[in-house]
Amino acid sequence: MDVNLFSPLQIRSLALKNRLVMSPMQQYRSTDGLAGPWHLVHLGSRAVGGMGLVITEATAVAPEGRNTLFDTGLWNEAQVAAWKPIVEFVQAQGAKIAVQLWHAGGKGSHAHPAAGFHYLPPADGGWVTKSASAVSLDRQHTAQQLTAAEIASLVSEFAASARRAVQAGFDAIELHAGHGYLFHQFYSALVNQRQDDYGGSFENRVRLLLETVDAIRAVIPTEMPLLVRLSSVDFSEEEDAWSLADSVHLVTLLQQHGVDVVTASAGGFSAPDKTKVVPLYQVPYAEQIKAATGVLTGAVGLITTPEQANTIISSGQADLVMLARELLRDPYFPLHAAATLHLSVPAPEPYLRAFPPAGRS
């Protein structure tokens, strides 16, 4: 059977109506980690627009896990209550919703982007950041190295937030393990200089991520999908840089530990060569990881047209297309894409006058 952008996809018990996914995008509109009206409209409008899966912005598992004071969280019951009506609204539109759980690690404690996104010291309302090793990730401050006891606490915090995600009604969970944040700080040897069980060898550097996956799998329903977003490569020529071969090795392990989907992004500690940042430039990572492991993959990176998105799916390069900035420009991308691709996809009843079914005008 031919597969296209609007073909359904089953992931465990989760039935997606199409292959379009809203990527996590920070909004910096939260107080005390609480989602609010902005998040309801931001996420809900994309569900109205026809997305199959909506993923929240990166949502911290602890106050110290945030990048700024304005990031959402899932470390207490008030935050569960704040997420529930948003989750219910998205689901009522026929979309599914996942929460992306994260910890910024040594990249945390920054001012709001509108205020310059500079490091915020404890005296100014920030906090002491912790990472795999005592390194500077923003050229403004040096993070402290996490102790073994603190690492164990982090795993517990992720598991507790996963339980809260289930309470809030989320359909799936994604772990943010890329873009230079905590898990990436451990698995990339560019940052991880530890000499204990969490540093040195490949097996040691991926240990924290695998332990966290196991801890989450132990507390969420068996039928609930678990996704992981990785940085497939480090965008670095250094000998110790994380490589695509490393990602393939890690994804093989993640599959064995119960991960269902891998979003293949890249970078986090350094920027790519600007001459190589072109439409679809990261799609080959998803394609090669899928080919090597058989795992379901999500493709990202300057995907802006219906034709591009449809080709990624129909050619088998990836199983899902993750859209970010294009959805900021066009919340109704799926409805416009269906018209462009001459596919009959129903719009919400109140919007039918603008998106009539095929054959009607």
TrEMBL record:
<dbReference type="InterPro" id="IPR013785">
    <property type="entry name" value="Aldolase_TIM"/>
</dbReference>
<dbReference type="InterPro" id="IPR044152">
    <property type="entry name" value="YqjM-like"/>
</dbReference>
<keyword id="KW-0521">NADP</keyword>
<dbReference type="GO" id="GO:0003959">
    <property type="term" value="F:NADPH dehydrogenase activity"/>
</dbReference>
<dbReference type="Pfam" id="PF00724">
    <property type="entry name" value="Oxidored_FMN"/>
</dbReference>
<dbReference type="InterPro" id="IPR001155">
    <property type="entry name" value="OxRdtase_FMN_N"/>
</dbReference>
<dbReference type="GO" id="GO:0010181">
    <property type="term" value="F:FMN binding"/>
</dbReference>
<keyword id="KW-0285">Flavoprotein</keyword>
<feature type="domain" description="NADH:flavin oxidoreductase/NADH oxidase N-terminal">
    <location>
        <begin position="4"/>
        <end position="341"/>
    </location>
</feature>
<keyword id="KW-0560">Oxidoreductase</keyword>
<keyword id="KW-0288">FMN</keyword>
<dbReference type="GO" id="GO:0050661">
    <property type="term" value="F:NADP binding"/>
</dbReference>
<protein>
    <submittedName>
        <fullName>Oxidoreductase</fullName>
    </submittedName>
</protein>
